Amino acid sequence: xxxxxxxLAILLGGVVLTxxxxxxxxxxPPPPAATPKPPAMRQSDDFLVVIPNTPETSAxxxxxxxxxxxxxxxxxxxxxxxxxxxxxAVVIPKRPWNLTGVTATGYRLVPILVxxxxxxxxxxxxxxxxxxxxxxxxxxxxxxxxxITMGEFLEFTRMGRQLPKKAVVLTFDDGYKSFKxxxxxxxxxxxxxxxxxxxxxxxxxxxxxxxxxELKDLQAEGFDVQAHSKTHSDLRRAPGETSAQFERRMQAExxxxxxxxxxxxxxxxxxxxxxxxWWDTDVLKQVKASGYMAAFTVRRQANxxxxxxxxxxxxxxxxxxxxxxxxxxxxxxxxxxLR
Length: 339
Prior knowledge:
The protein is of the alpha/beta class. It has helices at residues 3-25, 58-66, 72-79, 130-142, 150-157, 178-190, 212-220, 243-265, 281-289, 323-327; strands at 40-43, 47-51, 56-57, 83-84, 90-93, 102-103, 106-108, 112-115, 117-119, 127-129, 146-147, 167-174, 195-198, 224-227, 271-273, 294-296, 315-316, 333-335. The strands form 6 sheets. Strands 8, 11, 12, 13, 14 and 17 form a 6-stranded parallel β-sheet that branches.
């Protein structure tokens, strides 16, 4: 081999040796990441028992095991907790366990609150300041109350749905535009639902009234719109009013709004708020005959699942109420020995 060839061979050999030395001196690759150990779990038809590896919340567990984060209240109500450390067993109900809300020590109550008009400043008893309203809504949120839909409440009264321990229903009477200006932004921010009871003669009647289109838009966003009669007059039979006159007036006050709702909103109202909360046995018969499934008074009292469907109670919230006064309308359990 020539000197040149020998030198090339030595050079190439040096490269190979150097490469080999580099290969042998490189650090070994890191081991593959360990697969997280799944949480220990036992289950029956009614319950899951989970032992999470890491800290969890009722919302995260509801999302994982119930498929819906909004069902966190089921875990909270059953366990009495909303946060759980890793390694602790958590019982998760897979389905409702008390549709009636009745226990050996008493029964569940659902407060229904009534608002009317809102403005920047309070005026009289029924025009509440926007700031006071917002304070009350944030109080509900901070204290763990859960505003539910009217449909959910009515299912509860038919013993077909279990509700959170601190369920509450928000209602707004008459159809004031102030709902859209002051209540709507707060309710949307907090994720609260509400029902508007409107009397049809007032809808679109002026700059302070919601229009049918505005009601339709609110309905599309998940707010419920229900009936409050045609003219907001006392539905009880007037002195000297004949049976025939009373029947005709009830047809106008109760049946015509259902027809107008169908035309304007595409749905027929199932519920009615009595104007001024006034009713009697004759009115109840007319309300039932007109097709309403439930009706609401303004008696200051919360409701058990077994409340009479045509005389459901609501508590009016007045503009001069303090936050302490407001909280007195939020009773959610009636203690009573039922053993």
